[in-house]
Amino acid sequence: MNQSCPLPSFGSDQITLGHGSGGKLTANLLDSGVFSIFDSPYLQERDDTATCPLGNESVVITTDSFVVNPLFFPGGDIGKLAVHGTVNDLAMGGGIPNYLTLALILEEDFPIAKLHTILQSIHEACGESGVEIVTGDTKVVEKGKGDQIFINTTGVGTPSPHAQLGNAYIQKGDAIITSGRVGDHGATILAQREGLEISGDLASDTRPLNHIVHGMLEKFGHAIHFLRDPTRGGISSTLNEAATTTKLGIHIVKDDIPILPEVKDFSSILGLDPLYIANEGIFIAFVEATQAEAIIEHLRQHPFGKNAAIIGTVIEDHPGVVVLENEIGGRRPLNLLPGEQLPRIC
Amino acid sequence: MKYQNEYRGKEEVRKILDELQRIVTREHSIMEICGGQTHTLVGYGLLDMLPKKITMIHGPGCPVCVTPISILDNAVELALEHDVTLFSFGDMLRIPGTSKSLLEARAEGGKVKAVYSPLEAVTYAEKNPNEEVVFLSIGFETTMPANAYAVDLAKKRGLENFSILVSHVLVPPAVEAVMSDPLTKVDALLAAGHVCTITGLSEYGPLVEKVKIPIVVTGFEPLDLLQGILMAVKQLEAGEIKLENQYGRVVKAEGNPAAMEVTRRVFEITDMEWRGLGVIPRSGLQLRPEYADFDASLRFSLDTCKIESESECIAADILKGIKKPPECPAFGTRCVPENPLGAPMVSNEGACSAYYQHAQMTSI
Questions:
Q1: Could you check whether the bond before residue A70 is cis, i.e. omega within 30 degrees of 0?
Q2: How far is CA A213 from CA A92, A198, A219, A296, B290, in A?
Q3: A271 and B36 in contact (C-beta within 8 Å)?
Q4: Which end of chain A is least crowded, N or C, by CB within 10 Å?
Q5: How far apart are CA A224 and CA A214, in angstroms?
Q6: Helix (H, G, I), strand (E, B) or coil at B282
């Protein structure tokens, strides 16, 4: 029997979709390119936001681009995402969002009526978040050179006086909290894309998290060590990033993660894992263990925190690795995806 | 979901593990054939929970892993050089071909789409009569009926722009091939429940006679796997060699006659190359001559000669249980899931990939 096995080439010369998945390929791309060229202490923080001095004050700043298909889905649309995404990034960085910029890249032929619907949605989302669009830009590309509409928003805010957040504050024993159910947004988008109907009221949970985060920081201050909204790559990516940068281990209990049964079944049928699909309306918090129960109680008072739960702990064992304890008591590492999540054949 | 959650009970799992611990008196190597079963063993952390005397060997039943590299190269060529819209099951897209994967072909402008069913490709071909549509028809007995049905449907509808690139493989010949090596260290087999759901059990009685070890047809939930392992261990401890069916709630002796009928009508048995194992006689399927119009390799005159360059991958030894993945010098260093040197590191369900994931948790 032939024992040889062909030598594949896996190094790629081109950008693949996996480079944008928020997983290992994204990290490789940033390491090999961005971080080696731009030698900035702010970038070295590898954060979604930067807090920079400006005159005698500081500003928190972030930017995000939105390319979603479909543009409209149950629970939201690309306009809402464009506001919430940037507002939430600022909130995770301990910022209180004030101003947004809005840049539109439109494909020739895109219906103006749809654009108006999206702009209206942006307007409403700004109202709900308490931010103002203060400047913007519009470009149009030839038919076929874009995909209907791409949106970029940049957000500016002031640092919350109660926040002391960052990887560096994560410590052994910290409790890990999710502010809500995992997977609703990603499952909604995937179901729409596949043309599948899911029973029940599954909808995207996209929403601004700045108010609930601000309330939590005001009350619990430095007991909150680290915040992140687990968007692209899901909660697995967020947890892996934290484990890698802190060189601590993370233990997660699957049964404690709130997931809608519909999302579980849907993912299981499609061969996907809800822990890797995108969220838009929840945050993950690493908090002082002694305060964890009180924080959960507090979050549950807020309409966006009703399903808040403690899902895991920071430990010394298996540094840099996230381990998931499943419903039968078995354990497995919850790794970063090598690229985009692909459904299994069987 | 019914028939799922009740097979994930903590207490039932504990009960079976206790019983295993009680009855096992010596070392046993048990091979689970199917990648789906490996997925469960690794995903649920069952490997750590089993008694130390039981070693699981991850078999050749990961369709993504064993599809020959030449088929991938053909698929990439179709997408990039023949202006074809190529449909595939999702997890094939990341698999590296000789020069690139289908994901990279897509990045270069190839029209590559992931689907859940070949019928989506048929529908697309019907709606887009000016495009050539090819479905990458791979997998074991489980995917054959739907793929056969898609071809049959395309023929009935008179579609002239639809074809399939075929690399189907059969379980029993692979089991025979693995077991025929005198060095193979496998004491019992867990057969793939979903494969037997289609084919029935008729081939497996004779297979037990040939390979002379216990075979237990087993399902995919954690409890299924543990029950299957328990049944195998009971046979081994009692010195028995017989066929048993753990997955009786799904697998009937006669299988699924309708599925087998369409498969036999469209496909015929042929010798087949397996990535990592080489050519195994009568171990695969090709389209019957009456369906030759739907054969993408003929339609696009693809070069199907098998070129395998040398590499340090020891896939065959791994799949036979002769060596364990960590014994390979490239394991975890030059060969990792993002950059696999060979079949078993390719998909999450591959034997080496399973070991790699497990090692990250325990040895760091």
A1: yes
A2: 8, 31, 10, 12, 66
A3: no
A4: N
A5: 11
A6: strand
What pLDDT, in 10s, does the model give residues A190-217? 888 877 766 677 899 999 999 999 999 9
pLDDT-derived band at B129, boundaries 50, 70, 90: very high
B361/A318 Cβ within 8 A: yes
Task: State whether CATH 3.40.50.300 applies to domain B5-62+185-245.
Answer: no
**What distance in Å separates the CA atoms of residue B344 and residue B337, rounded to the nearest whole number?**
9
Distances (CA, A) of A284 to A229, A249, B9, B141: 6, 16, 28, 43
Bridge partner residues of A133 (DSSP): A100
Give the tokens for residue B177: 């091939």
Do A282 and A228 touch, CB atoms closer than 8 A? Answer: no
10 Å CB burial of residue B304 (0-12, 13-18, 19+) is middle
- CA A25 to CA A12: how far, in whole Å? 10
pLDDT per residue over A65-103, tens digit each? Answer: 999 888 999 999 999 999 999 999 999 999 999 999 999
Please report the pLDDT score of residue A336 as a whole number.
78
For chain B, the domains span 5-62+185-245, 65-170+255-299, 317-362
What ipTM does the predicted assembly reach? 0.73
Whether residue A163 contacts residue A224, with contact meaning beta carbons closer than 8 Å, is answered with yes
Q: What are the residues facing A73 on neighbouring strands? A: A76
Specify the pLDDT at position B112: 95
Range(s) of chain A covered by CATH 3.30.1330.10:
46-159
Q: Mark yes or no for CB contact B360/A321 under 8 Å.
A: yes
CB contact under 8 A, A7 and B309: yes
Which residue, among B361, B337, B294, has the nearest Cα to B147 in the 3D structure?
B294
Parts of chain A belonging to CATH 3.90.650.10: 167-333
Residue B3: its pLDDT value, please? 65
Contact A345 B89 (CB under 8 A): yes
Q: Decide if B108 contacts B345 (C-beta within 8 A).
A: no
Residue B207, min C-alpha distance to chain A (Å): 20
Fold of B65-170+255-299: Rossmann fold (3.40.50)
CB nearest to B64's CB, from A1, A11, A345: A345
B3-59 per-position pLDDT tens digit? 667 788 889 999 999 999 999 999 999 999 998 898 899 888 899 899 999 999 988
A2 touches chain B (CB under 8 A): yes
The string of DSSP codes covering A250-294 is EEEEGGGS---HHHHHHHHHHT--GGGS--SS--EEEE-GGGHHH
Per-residue b/e over A128-167, b at no fewer than 16 CB within 10 Å? bbebeeeeeeeeeeeeeebebbbbbbbbbbbbbebbebbb
CA atoms within 13 A on the CB side of B83: 3
**Token pair for residue A141?**
């590309």
Closest to B311 (Cβ–Cβ): which among A5, A268, A270?
Answer: A5
Tokens 């009350």 identify what position? Answer: A219
**Structure tokens that stand for B63 in this block:** 């369709």
Fold of A167-333: Phosphoribosyl-aminoimidazole Synthetase; Chain A, domain 2 (3.90.650)
Size of chain B, expressed as the number of residues it contains: 364
Q: Do domains B5-62+185-245 and B65-170+255-299 have the same CATH topology?
A: yes
> Which option is the CATH number for A46-159: 3.40.50.1390, 3.30.450.20, 3.40.1440.60, 3.30.1330.10?
3.30.1330.10
Residue carrying structure tokens 């263990």: A289
Q: Indicate the residue type of A250.
A: I
Torsion over CA of B103, B104, B107 and B113, rounded to 10 degrees?
-30
Rounded to two decimals, the pTM is 0.82
